[in-house]
Amino acid sequence: MVLSDIEIARNANKKPIREIAKKINVDEESLNPFGHFAAKIILNTKNKISEKKSKLILVTAITPTPAGEGKTTTSVGLNDGLCKIGKKSIVCLREPSLGPSFGMKGGAAGGGYAQVVPMENINLHFTGDFHAITSANNLLASLIDNHIYWGNKLGIDVRRISWKRCVDLNDRALREITANLGGTKNGYPRIDGFNITVASEVMAIFCLASDLKDLERRLGNITVAYTRDKKPIFAKDLKAEGPMTVLLKEALMPNLVQTLENNPAIIHGGPFANIAHGCNSVIATQTSLKLSDYVITEAGFGADLGAEKFFNIKCRKSGLEPNGVVLVATIRALKMHGGVKKEDLGNENVEAVRLGISNLNRHVDNIKKFGLPIIVAINHFVADTENEMKALQEECDKIGVESVLCQHWSKGGEGAVELAKKVVDLVNQKTSFKFLYEDKMPLFEKIKTIAKEIYDANEIIADTKIKSQLKQFEENGYGDFPICIAKTQYSFSTDPSLKGAPSKHTIPIREVRLSSGAEFIVVVCGEIMTMPGLPSVPAANSIHLNENGQIEGLF
Asked: Residue 238: in which H helix or E strand, if any?
């Protein structure tokens, strides 16, 4: 009998969080417990966290498909594998959003015997970080409308308010709303809208801030609106950065939990990679690097989104330098990229595997452009055949990249020992890490560079209004900002139906947004939404409490 993820997690032999903390030399005075099995690491001058030279490994993946790739599962499995071979390692992940948990994707705490626990808590409210981020975002929104109601001394043009409210759920009905209805006592009616919390600029700032002071500075620099003569209004003009920081003070401390094998895991922050920069917090990664010899982190969705933003945004802003990359692939996903339908994935199809390698090859080439060594982790499924496995490994040999079969889903850390040994060798290689583009490159040229070098597009379409906005951003002092592309995660193109490695396509830019606090420019391409909707049969339909009060149906 194959147990579900939640059944495996529920049967885990968890250890008290203070014992997990001892493994990485964090004393009890530096812990703020949340129950028996989770705690926040208090960041202050009293704790004994000091600088050390550690290896940073990024786990990314081929372009995602409904067949599943298992990036988080591989990250957890690799961490357990490193601990199995006697290495001091921490896995550093993002927090799951309630949107996918109740929507289509499900949870984000790993799977099988490569999970982080307590799984139910992590996938739901956890330590309340997302609620704090939602509250900070919406406090700023309420301060904007309140300022206008009481006389609007700053001269905010209600037609040019750029700040939206947010909620950590998929709710398409909130994408565009009319606010302040009900007469003069409620304010001035205007068009407003909601983002999902993980798309909020507050989330991006939270994940890029180096400390509380930096957090407060960035929050104050958020552009919330413009006057009639197009003068920007910042959050600091409303004196919003102070109370917003107060709401985020506790949340900014990283969360410590454990894997099924009682190894340390730090889970903190959670922007999506298709609509934001898709990486866990800088504070969590830097803290992990001080506490262990190896740090495994991941970036959301495929390498064209998560890894590109990890390098060009997170590393650029934080000074982090990765030592190597693990690219996760599955036979099932490669067959889908080779043209096989989901319902036919159980049938052996060697030719489809060979065709699907085009997707993996593109990602490998892209990662090499950043000057980093790479290894392919083949996340094994029970239906994979010997012929298919042989074909994949032959194709990897042809493109000059080593591949390792991994069975962490079914065997935990033991199933990732070979990968762990290969990764230790990988990260000891000499690297020449570099960014894809320089700070001083014009914003439009940065966008073109990503489109050409990462997506293999031959053209980007942007109307005069968008080009004028980019020029205005440069004139206002934001020309050095990196680019954060928002587009579908299911293809190198903006058409989710184009699998494999589409080339010479066109990238249409729908809008550009200034994130002056997070310090990047969001470029919205194609039909991507910053407030997702629920599918026709949402995962929420299957989630309930059983007669023992335990959660059922959560992945």
From this structure: none
Q: Is 23 exposed, middle or buried (0-12, 13-18, 19+ CB in 10 A)?
A: middle
Q: Which of 223, 222, 225 is nearest to 188 (CA)?
A: 225
Span 484-505, pLDDT tens digits = 999 999 999 999 999 999 999 9
pLDDT band at residue 108, thresholds of 50, 70 and 90? confident
Tens-digit pLDDT profile for residues 382-409: 888 999 999 999 999 998 999 999 999 9
Which residues are annotated as catalytic? 71, 73, 94, 105, 273, 301, 381, 409
**Helices 201-208, 241-248: inter-axial angle, 10-degree rounding:** 70
- When pLDDT is cut at 50, 70 and 90, the band that residue 176 belongs to is very high
Determine the length of the chain.
555
Where does the pLDDT of residue 49 fall: very low under 50, low under 70, confident under 90, or very high at 90 and above? low
Question: Per DSSP, what are the bridge partners of residue 378?
Answer: 329, 405
pLDDT of residue 47 exceeding 60, the answer is no
In angstroms, rounded to a whole number, what is the distance separating the alpha carbons of residues 24 and 476?
45
Q: Are 123 and 109 in contact (CB under 8 A)?
A: yes
What is the SS3 string spanning 372-412? CCEEEEEECCCCCCHHHHHHHHHHHHHCCCCEEEECHHHHH
Q: Which two tokens stand for residue 547?
A: 């007669």
In this structure, what token pair is assigned to residue 338?
A: 């080779």
Q: How far apart are CA 164 and CA 200, in angstroms?
A: 8
Pair of tokens at residue 129? 């970080």
Q: Decide: residue 341, CB within 10 A, 0-12 exposed, 13-18 middle, 19+ buried.
A: exposed
pTM of this structure: 0.94
CB neighbour list of residue 422: distance below 8 Å, 6 or more residues apart: 375, 402, 404
Q: Which residues pair with 177 in a beta bridge?
A: 192
Residue 46 pLDDT: 46
Rounded to an integer, what distance in angstroms lies between the CA atom of residue 508 and that of residue 170? 25
Rounded to whole angstroms, the Cα distance separating 386 from 358 reads 20
> Which residue has tokens 């699907």?
356
**What is the rounded (10 degree) CA torsion for 59, 63, 68, 72?**
20
- Residues 182-206 as b or e (16 or more Cβ within 10 Å = b): eeeeebeeeebebbbbbbbbbbbbb
pLDDT at residue 188 in the model: 85
289 vs 278: CA distance, rounded Å: 19
Q: Which residues contact 206 (CB under 8 A, 6 or more apart)?
A: 129, 133, 215, 248, 251, 252, 269, 281
**Do 6 and 121 form a contact (C-beta atoms < 8 A)?**
no
Is residue 18 over pLDDT 80? yes
Question: Which pLDDT belongs to residue 272?
Answer: 87
Banded model confidence at residue 44, pLDDT cuts 50, 70, 90: low
